[in-house]
Amino acid sequence: MQYRNGQRLPLDGIAARLSVNPRARRLSIRIDARAGEAVLIAPSERKLADVVAFARTRISWMLERLAERPHGTPLQPGAVIDLFGRPIRLVATGGAGAARLTEDADGPVIASGGEGEAFARRVENLFKRVAKETLQTRTDVHLRALGQDAGRGPVTLSIADPKSRWGSCSPHNRSIRYSWRVVMAPPAVIDYLAAHEVAHLVHADHSPAYWSVVQRLVGDHRPFRKWLRDNGPALHAVGR
């Protein structure tokens, strides 16, 4: 059978996607927790048949990893969602009012109008507004810290909901895009993400020189990267 890059196929009951990565040194399997599928990675298209054969020997492992993936927390009244690394309850107010941060006798809450999908949409919009304000502030802080090393001219910032990435930077047009979901993380992790993207204005790659810029901005970045690796799938599952 002829396989191609990006092809999806059932593999003994497992949803699998084929991926060619020329930089890969070996055949490998990655679990995409959000998509609920196994990604079979080969260095070239001619090796895709080999990685499919390899994956057939790893069915039990893939099933175990997929079973471990976090289930999404729905954005509905009564749910508890983190904001800046601290739990906050979602409560319904009735009517059609926008979601807002407030408190009741039991602590901080996000109170919102709407029902069903309308409630979830209002809560997500609040998170996006908080993300835009917070990440704009931290981005500006790191831009000032780097000064002319980060180039000249304004930086355009946008908030989105990418499939798995936390942010991206396009140095050629000085634009940075962040995932709104990062505001569920602790403040130090949010700050690291802003530093990570701003540093790409100095070095577009992930070379040692690039990481030295990140370290200049936030110090030891390894704990923040580990936090995102360990907790990221749960954050991406919220509202799914």
Short note summarizing the structure:
The chain is 37% helix and 24% strand. By secondary structure, it is an alpha/beta fold.
Molecular structure report:
The mean pLDDT is about 95. This protein has helices spanning about 50-55, 60-70, 115-145, 185-200, 210-220, 220-235; strands at about 10, 15-20, 30, 35-40, 80-85, 85-90, 100-105, 105-110, 155-160, 165-170, 175-180. The longest helix is centred in the middle third of the chain and has 30 residues, at about 115-145. The chain has 6 helices and 11 strands. It has about 240 residues and is an alpha/beta fold. The protein folds into 2 domains: about 10-70, no CATH class; about 125-235, Metalloproteases ("zincins"), catalytic domain (Zincin-like).
Q: What are the salient characteristics of this protein?
A:
240 residues; Zincin-like; 2 domains; 4-stranded mixed β-sheet; 6 helices
Secondary-structure content class: alpha/beta
CATH superfamily of the largest domain: Metalloproteases ("zincins"), catalytic domain
Helix content: 25-40%
CATH fold topology of the largest domain: Zincin-like
Beta percentage is 15-25%
Number of strands: 11
Distance between the termini: 35 Å
Counting structural domains, the number is: 2
Order of strands, main sheet, comes to 1-2-4-3
> Average pLDDT value?
93
Please tally the helical runs, counting DSSP H or I stretches of 4 or more residues: 6
What is the alpha-carbon Rg in Å?
A: 21 Å
Largest beta sheet, briefly?
A: 4 strands, mixed
Compressed to H and E, one letter per element, the order equals EEEEHHEEEEHEEEHHH
CATH class of the largest domain: Alpha Beta
**Overall CATH architecture of the largest domain:** 2-Layer Sandwich
Shape: globular
Flag low-confidence runs. none
